[in-house]
Amino acid sequence: MITSYAGNEGIIDADLSRILIEGNVRIRGNKAVSGGAVAGTSTDLTIRGNVVIENNTAGYIGGGITVRNLSRVLIADNVQLLGNNAYMGGAIALSGSEVVIRDSVRIIGNTGTAIVVNGDLADAVASSSGLTTGRYVLICENTGEIAGAIFGRYPCTYDIHGLIRDNYDRSGTVRNVQVDEIAYPDFHVDISVYGGTTTFMPGVYSSFGDTHLSAVPSGNYGLPVWFSYHSNGIGEQVGVGLECDVKIWGENTQIVADFQKSTSLSVLYSAGGFVSGINPSGYYEFDVEVTLTATAYPGFVFKNWIYEGDTYSDTELSFIHNKPTMVRAVFERDPETVLPSPDSYILAIDHNEGGQVTTTHQGGWYEEKAVVQLTADPEEGHVFSYWSINGSRFYYEPVLVVYLNEDINVQAVFKEYQPLFVPEDKVFSLSTKAYHGTITGAKASYQQGDVVSLTAKADPNWHFSTWLLDGYPTGSETTFTFIIQGDVAVEALFETDGVPEAPKPQAYELHLTIEYDGDDLISSTEQHPAGTVVQLDAKNYKRRGYVFYGWSDGEGSLAGSSDEYEVTVSSNKIITAYFVKQDIASNEQVAVPKMKYANGELSVSGMEGCKVLVFNVSGSLVKELRVASAFERYPLLLPQGVYIVKAVKGGDSYAEKLIVRQ
């Protein structure tokens, strides 16, 4: 763990360096001006493998990570950025740099917008920035001034996938993404699954980029068909398979994963060959005939199939598939093959229809510990699905790095691309509103995906202030550009050229306390419209054994002693009604000291011969006085706060609360 560092740049200063952080590392509670954990310029930075960066703080940008000027960053493979804080870029701030985030990365609970692109424009002049997030990246519950998840400025390119949901702006309203002055709308997404389970969480998701869905079938169910339903009740099919990327658009959405009745077939094979005839999905309908063919690579020979506990030596295997089944093809090295060296291993590279595999080296024999990078390139009309390693699903990102310490078969699996169906006749409305100015550039209706550019012009003696998009502050430039994803309302706010008058509250609170000689307190708070006159009557609060003494206006002095008291609610008010104990035998009011504090002076009456003690709320004695006559005045400078004034004479005492306001 790296913790409790404070400095100008991050605890890891990565300028002009190649930095690798991996393997059970925790960077926590550090502070810097920029990059609470890592800061670098022209840096090659990789963070991967069970790394946690949490609760770091930057006074300016990049609570977790700051990179500038031609830096390249890869964050991958179970990395978490949690609870970091900065003015801009609570988790990551990048300028003029390329950042790729993929493979089970969680960015949660950061403050100052999770990812800020080109927040420091001076550092972005040299080159454009780039931000890529993979399908298994979660960005949620972050907060920022304008948007909680991503705030970006030109120039930058974006390739966004994964889950961006429930991030908040400064008002506590969900606002996920704003890029290049374009506020991307957010929509509530719910999900229903029939015949399986999913880890997808309902929430308010961004329309920026794609949202990744995945599901797992229950017994006797196979691949799901994915549907997207909108408020009109019409559903469109958006995908088939255990995983699906969906573009959230237009309105709140209900996603349905409807698993079809089928059963799974797992085909495993050892390194040295491949099996053809496999359905890439791994699922088949009931009672269908399946035929598999085993083919050995050069230097290997096919040995046998293992199917339901039996072995079969023919290279072709056929059977009726009607239950979850596992089949294994076994290959062996050909004993007649001459190896390049005793510690050599084979890398066999294959792919199904729909794409190709490019690599830094060709498949074949390699020395032990060789490192080979593979890239899956889908053809037109297809998308990459997953890598298969020796017959098992292994990896879901298109770039795969293989470390050779055994014979390995690698297959890239592609699938047909099924784009989201958007009805061509879907029309969205744009309403505009402006007082003390005008908005130009709007029309009555738009198609989904249209780019809108509006311009605000102020009336004489007024100037433009802020755009509101669906009621939320969005931008302060007179020209506002955004993408239509649904019906939207835009308002332009203007201010006078003079000093704008602060808006007056429409209502205030009246806090009333009834105090019975220090023995009991009853409090209540009511809200009244500004200017309301409230009539109070002490007779409504009388209690046996007590008589009314007077009203306090909250300034620590008596404001009246009659039962009736009138209050004009022109601000928040604190009113106290004091009752004192009554001598039942004589039916007279017990003598009670009276006091008033104003302008640094304490006035007392009815305290002749008393010792007066003034305590603060912590119980410390502030002042002690001896009262000689019926009425005395004492200079007493008290700081703002709450005090207890206690009058003592013989065995009797009386205490009263004093509130001092500056």
Give the gist of this structure.
The chain is built from no helices and 73 strands. The chain is mainly β.
How far apart the termini lie comes to 48 Å
Question: Major beta sheet, specifics?
Answer: 8 strands, mixed
- So how many helices? 0
Q: What's the rounded overall pLDDT mean?
A: 78
Please supply descriptive tags for the structure shown above.
mainly beta, 6 domains, 73 strands, 0% helix, elongated, disordered N terminus
Structure description:
The chain is mostly beta strands and 662 residues long. It folds into six domains: 2-184; 187-259, no CATH class; 263-416, no CATH class; 428-496; 504-590, Ubiquitin-like (UB roll), CATH 3.10.20; 593-662, Immunoglobulin-like, CATH 2.60.40. The chain has no helices and 73 strands. It has an eight-stranded mixed beta sheet with strand order 3-7-11-15-18-21-24-25, with no helix packed on it. A seven-stranded parallel beta sheet has the order 1-5-9-13-17-20-23, with no helix packed on it. The chain is elongated.
Helices and strands, with pairings:
Layout: E1 2-3, E2 6-7, E3 12-13, E4 18-22, E5 25-28, E6 31-34, E7 38-41, E8 44-48, E9 51-54, E10 57-61, E11 65-68, E12 72-76, E13 79-82, E14 85-88, E15 92-95, E16 98-102, E17 105-108, E18 115-117, E19 129-133, E20 137-140, E21 150-152, E22 156-160, E23 163-165, E24 177-179, E25 182-184, E26 186-194, E27 196-197, E28 203-206, E29 211-214, E30 216-217, E31 221-229, E32 235-240, E33 243-246, E34 253-261, E35 263-269, E36 273-276, E37 283-284, E38 288-296, E39 300-307, E40 310-312, E41 316-321, E42 325-333, E43 344-351, E44 355-359, E45 364-367, E46 371-378, E47 382-389, E48 392-395, E49 399-403, E50 408-416, E51 427-434, E52 437-440, E53 445-447, E54 451-458, E55 462-469, E56 472-475, E57 479-483, E58 488-496, E59 507-516, E60 520-529, E61 532-537, E62 546-552, E63 558-560, E64 564-569, E65 573-583, E66 588-589, E67 594-598, E68 601-605, E69 611-616, E70 621-626, E71 631-635, E72 641-649, E73 652-660
Parallel strand pairs: 1-5, 2-6, 3-7, 4-8, 5-9, 6-10, 7-11, 8-12, 9-13, 10-14, 11-15, 12-16, 13-17, 15-18, 16-19, 17-20, 18-21, 19-22, 20-23, 21-24, 26-34, 35-42, 43-50, 51-58, 59-65
Antiparallel strand pairs: 24-25, 26-28, 27-30, 29-33, 31-32, 31-34, 35-37, 36-38, 38-41, 39-40, 39-42, 43-45, 44-46, 46-49, 47-48, 47-50, 51-53, 52-54, 54-57, 55-56, 55-58, 59-60, 61-64, 62-63, 62-65, 65-66, 67-68, 68-71, 69-70, 69-72, 72-73
